[in-house]
Amino acid sequence: MAKAQTTHIAILPSPGMGHLIPLVQFAKRLVHQHSFNATFIIPTDGSPSKAQKSTLDSLPSSIDSVFLPPINLTDLPGDSKIETVISLTVSRSLPYLRDAFKSLVAKTNLVGLVVDLFGTDAFDVANEFGLSPYIFYPSTVMALSLSLYLQELDQKVSCEYRDMSEPVRIPGCIAIQGKELPDSIQTGKTTHTSGCFIMSPNDSVAHATFFSIESQNDPFEFLPKGFIERTKDRGLLVPSWAPQAQVLSHGSTGGFLTHCRWNSTLESVVNGVSLIVWPLYAEQKMKALMLTEDAKVALRPKPNENGLICRDDIAKVVKGLMEGEEGKSVRTRMKELKEAAAKVLGENGSSTKALSHVANKFIHQALQASRN
To answer: Which residue spans traverse the membrane (predicted)?
Structure first.
């Protein structure tokens, strides 16, 4: 069988829908704007989720996918951090990745590999096949700047970051308290989207809530007893991965309570939906600070003396977003960001141009390969 000549790239998302979704959007743009073909190669430690399969099955025919055989993680302690689990899932899948590359190289014009931040172990395998390796990093500039600055910061600070009395000044970013830095760098220093949508007709009064919940067992097990029954006539509970982008684009969505995952944040900006931020772990506190104090597109409930967010505080901040002057200012600012996002993604926008620059590199490599 003759090898296809269309420029082809492999995409390796690390485990988790939150890592798959932005790479899916990246692949769609390469296909639609530059006529590429792409194959998702997905490491696993078990059976693919329904959300993964439905997302991949919905893609155009020029985007293929393959799930690698599941790897064994039974040797890991039960309290292993999620970052460890993700990284080991990728690294232990490298032999299977090598086999997938052999198949793709034989039948496609494969020229490059795109991974997310947890997939860089795959670069050695990519180099074996002469593929150009790229990291897709769609998180915040603040997180990127911290990553580049971290080694220098570590040399300057003798205590744990959470114990610092002075704020950390990340280059080019708003100052942040050490305790707000990502969990992954707190101890030893360098060592699924869920949310609530506040619906309102004509952007006025909040009258319903929408929850997206995913659990391996009972998806509603964490809810207070009787909650489902009490809210059945004015709320909707979805026990699986919800079509979040579609909900955010609906005209009745007046606000979004989120844990500050960056996919959710960007989807909110593109649709002009103001935020209530409730960070829980990882780098979410850093993002919450940036969204409230720097970008000023979000409100944040204040914890009590025990560090807990109580329902009265949530009700207060929801009302403030929907009716108060502070909420009005946040909505105005979010509208400005929505317009800016539309320009960036437009035909002559910086994002479109940046993608074209990368695509041209892939195309150039494909032409060189065809001449050899």
So the answer is: none
Q: Which residues, in sequence order, are bridge partners of residue 37? A: 8
Backbone φ/ψ region at 307: left (φ over 0), alpha (ψ -120 to 50), beta: left
Buried-state track 91-115, b at ≥16 Cβ within 10 A, e below 16: bbbbebbeebbeebbeebbbbbbbb
Q: Say how many C-beta atoms besides its own lie within 10 A of residue 180's C-beta.
A: 19
Q: Please tell me the pTM assigned to this model.
A: 0.83
Domain 195-345: CATH class, spelled out: alpha beta
Runs of H (alpha helix) within the chain? 17-34, 50-57, 82-91, 94-107, 123-128, 141-156, 227-231, 244-248, 262-271, 284-289, 311-323, 325-345, 350-371
- pLDDT tens, residue order, the chain (372 aa): 556 789 999 999 999 898 999 999 999 999 999 999 999 999 999 999 988 999 999 999 999 999 999 999 999 998 888 889 999 999 999 999 999 999 999 999 999 999 999 999 999 999 999 999 999 998 899 999 999 999 999 999 989 999 999 999 999 999 999 999 988 787 655 444 444 554 444 443 333 344 444 444 565 666 778 888 888 887 777 777 788 899 999 998 999 999 998 999 999 999 999 999 999 888 899 999 999 999 999 999 998 888 889 989 999 999 999 998 999 999 999 999 999 999 999 999 999 999 999 999 999 988 887 776
Domain range list for the chain: 7-138, 141-185, 195-345
Q: How far is CA 269 from CA 143, 179, 209, 210, in A?
A: 18, 27, 20, 19
Q: What is the spatial distance between Cα 247 and Cα 250, in angstroms, rounded to a whole number? A: 5
CA 228 from centre of chain? 29
Residue 182's identity, in one-letter code, is P
CATH fold match for the domains 7-138 and 195-345: yes
CATH of domain 7-138: 3.40.50.2000
The torsion angles phi and psi of 236, rounded to 5 degrees, stand at: -135, 125
Catalytic residues, which ones?
A: 19, 116
Give the three-state DSSP class for 348.
coil
